[in-house]
Amino acid sequence: MNSPYMGKFQVTQEFKGQAHDGLDLVGLDIKEIHSTVNGTVHYAGWENPANHSQGFGQYVCIRSTGGNYYYFGHLSEIRVKSGDTVKTTDVIGVEGNTGYSTGSHCHYCVRPQFCAGNAYNVSEISGIPNALGTYDDGYLTVSKKTVDVTLSADGRNYSGTLSEN
């Protein structure tokens, strides 16, 4: 599975073709949005700079090395600029509630051109199920570290093991 999140996320709106051309996703572990492809940032900014309540609001569009355009909409923060080269897992922004949106999420879609319409089924491309629910893309791993420590307090030495999850 290749989602814009690294860890757990929810699908809150399914891909429905012309009726809804992508998946609406909400991060549960983190809110940072990551590139899902290698490519070049084609556009990063407001869909309509004169009216921030329209469309995707703040969004990033990446043209993949394969030629498709990957959209990440409704961002609260953009961390790339047009022309930047990105690779899979690079942070490109932060989930948000900008544009025509009813709550914090990322609208994720794939189109053959840099324009509305003719969107591909992003569920089939990414492996994200086209079904409401909670999923884990498997990128976020929990590591355990065990370190032996010696502390000194009030002139005494204390030894023990510190574990971090």
What does this molecule look like?
The protein is mainly beta. Helices cover 3% and strands 42% of the residues. The protein is built from one helix and 13 strands; from the N terminus they run E-E-E-E-E-E-E-E-E-E-H-E-E-E. The protein has an eight-stranded antiparallel sheet with strand order 8-4-5-6-10-2-1-11. Strands 3-9-7 form a three-stranded antiparallel sheet, with no helix packed on it. The chain has a two-stranded antiparallel sheet with strand order 12-13. Strand 12 (145-153) and strand 13 (156-164) form a beta hairpin. The protein is globular and about 35 Å long. The two termini are 24 Å apart. Residues 142-152 and 158-165 have low confidence and may be disordered.
Features:
eight-stranded antiparallel beta sheet; mainly beta; 165 residues; 1 helix; 3% helix
Topology at a glance:
Elements: E1 8-13, E2 23-27, E3 32-34, E4 39-46, E5 58-64, E6 69-73, E7 77-78, E8 85-86, E9 91-94, E10 106-111, H1 122-126, E11 133-136, E12 145-153, E13 156-164
Antiparallel strand pairs: 1-2, 1-11, 2-10, 3-9, 4-5, 4-8, 5-6, 6-10, 7-9, 12-13
Order of helices and strands: EEEEEEEEEEHEEE
Strand order of the largest sheet: 8-4-5-6-10-2-1-11
Coarse morphology: globular
Number of strands: 13
Stretches with pLDDT under 50, minimum 5 residues: 142-152, 158-165
From the structure provided, what is the oligomeric state, counting identical versus distinct chains?
single chain
Q: What percent of residues adopt helix (DSSP H or I)?
A: under 10%
Number of helices: 1
Task: Classify the secondary structure makeup into a structural class.
Answer: mainly beta
Mean pLDDT over the residues:
88
Radius of gyration: 20 Å
Strand content: 35-45%
Report the end-to-end length measured between terminal Cα atoms.
Answer: 24 Å
Largest pleated sheet:
8 strands, antiparallel
